[in-house]
Amino acid sequence: LLARPDMVGRMLKWSLELAEFDISFESRKALKAQVLADFVAEMTTSTTSEKNKWTIFVDGSSNSQGSGAGIILENGDEVLIEVSLGLSFPTTNNQAEYEAFLAGLRLAEDMGAEEITIFTDSQLVASQVSGEYQTKEERLLEYLNLIRAKIAKFKETEVKHVPREHNARADVLSKLASTRRKKAGNQSLIQETLTKPSIEKTAEVMYICAVDEQSWMSPVYNFLKSNTLPIDAKEAAKIRKRACSYVLLDDKLYRRGFSIPLLKCVEEERVEFILQEIHEGINGQHIGGRSLARKALRAGYY
Q1: What stretches of 25-120 show up as alpha helix (H) in DSSP?
Q2: 301 near 267, Cβ under 8 Å?
Q3: What are the pLDDT digits (tens) for 172-230?
């Protein structure tokens, strides 16, 4: 247009003003493939997600007034969780430090963390976990084995020793303080109490369906289990007919239903406990007899 101003009258004045600068038109050249490749390499952002990288500050304390653990879990500026954990059992200072370390690992696992960096002001704990120091005390060795089993669940774990002055907040939480500090994103302060050491295993209780010889379901159970029937032909026929309404799964007797799932058959000594829980338990409504029976059926018991 500047070369032929006669075609566009409005640009004539602009053309005369710009003529002194000797402006010439140059067509755009083709974009080189290498330039495009350099641009893509320079401007492409990292696809690695930072959301699963967590930082944990832990500290434990034990004195004449009691024991406690402080845990701070951070994920950048998005999430901040502070835990003040009371220990209601006797501990040494080193055991309290290990309890704080374990609590931090459990919290990170619950939050779905994959890569964690743990800061502790205990030189002993940091060195023993990293393998620099040996652990001779049997009780601390149990803690260490439990920690290593927890660490194995994460993709990447780094343990660092930090001076106490840089771990002041966790130290305050370990003393069960209730102070807060502002930070962007979601934050919460959790206060809990641990009633027993983490290294003490909870005994696993296995429920065994023991069928009493005098139980109402013994004849049906024995027939379905081992095809055992009474000598009396009439009684045997009744049991065969009755057994059609029952099924044996994992050595437990269930009654079939038409519009409801299988109902678990229970012994007489457990009936009172189950009905009491339904009637007076934490979810109980103190209902009448018939309603209680229907509710027991809906709960899956017969």
Answers
A1: 33-43, 93-110
A2: no
A3: 666 643 333 444 444 456 666 677 787 776 444 434 444 445 677 788 888 888 888 88
The 3-state DSSP class for residue 191 equals strand
Query: CA angle, corner 21, sides to 16 and 26, nearest 5?
Result: 100
Q: 58 - beta bridge partners?
A: 71, 120
Tell me how far apart the alpha carbons of residues 260 and 278 are, in angstroms, rounded to a whole number.
18
Q: Which domains does the chain have, with CATH numbers?
A: 53-194 (3.30.420.10), 218-298 (no CATH)
Q: In sequence order, what E strands does the chain have?
A: 53-63, 66-75, 79-87, 115-120, 156-161, 186-194, 246-249, 252-255, 263-264
Along the 302 residues of the chain, how does pLDDT read in single tens digits?
555 555 555 666 666 677 677 777 677 666 666 667 777 777 666 555 555 689 999 888 887 777 888 888 888 777 778 888 888 888 888 898 999 899 999 888 888 888 999 998 889 999 999 888 888 888 889 999 999 999 998 999 999 988 877 767 667 666 643 333 444 444 456 666 677 787 776 444 434 444 445 677 788 888 888 888 888 888 888 888 888 888 888 788 888 765 556 777 777 666 666 566 555 544 444 455 555 555 555 444 54
Token pair recorded at residue 254: 């269930």
For the CA atoms of 129, 130, 134, 138, what is the dihedral angle to 10 degrees? 10
- Stretch (H or E) spanning 301: none
Task: Look at strands 186-194 and 79-87 and give their pairing.
Answer: parallel
Q: In what order do the strands lie in the sheet with 66-75?
A: 156-161, 115-120, 53-63, 66-75, 79-87, 186-194
CB 141 within 8 A of CB 124: no
pLDDT digits (tens, 9 = 90+) for 132-149: 888 888 888 999 999 999
